[in-house]
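Annotators were shown the component list below and the corresponding predicted structure, then asked to write short factual statements about the assembly.
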Amino acid sequence: MTYLPPDEATRARMLDTVRFDAAGLIAAVAQQHDTGEILMLAWMNRAALDETLRTGRVCYFSRSRDALWRKGETSGQVQSLVDARLDCDRDAVVLLVDQQGVACHTGRRSCFFNAMRPEGLVETSAPLVSPDSLYGQG
Amino acid sequence: MTYLPPDEATRARMLDTVRFDAAGLIAAVAQQHDTGEILMLAWMNRAALDETLRTGRVCYFSRSRDALWRKGETSGQVQSLVDARLDCDRDAVVLLVDQQGVACHTGRRSCFFNAMRPEGLVETSAPLVSPDSLYGQG
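Structure shown to annotators:
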């Protein structure tokens, strides 16, 4: 599956329709394109979404670091874009991606592993890799 | 599939671990439990998430109306909860649901239908029902 990037003018025209919030952000949900698994939820500003569409490599905006966050730059766990889909009111985006390795900093495929059950929080998956191995401390 | 609600003490204990933002909200992503389709992204405050866990009927918080939003109360398009899963840093939740009818106010199953393509925005699905029929004007 080859991702085809829109040209600059087309990107600008589409980005003009996005309703970024007061902080200039929209919520972005990454979903593995072929299995439907939801991997993570993060944030994008206009520059992050533009870079993602231009390069086909997912780039978020880190609110804690106040900077662009090129997913996998440190860990190697990159997300290749397959399709980006804005919602009906243009203030959220689903990214259909091909996730290399694991999406979660805990070493799990998905960040959404804390199920809210009658017995309390239950982890629905175990880490596939050590977090240390993701960030060069292993 | 019968949803089993946690009791009040267990709900309170789990809700105490959720990291609501400065406005008291977390992002909530609804996913059809058996197909994996992402239906919508909305917001929940503590009361909305507690009611959802208690009743097994999804209740959001409407930022525009500043009030609880019992999904389907007007349209009949209710979401029955199957499982709620917090992410690794507890500031987002995926709701595995069984969606009755359509999730989107435009009459589509999913709100995420505006694909960002080389030729510009492309609608990936057409309405299944008339929006008027959802809100009693049909």
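Statements collected:
1. Helices of chain A lie at 8-15, 46-55, 131-134.
2. The mean pLDDT of chain A is 95.
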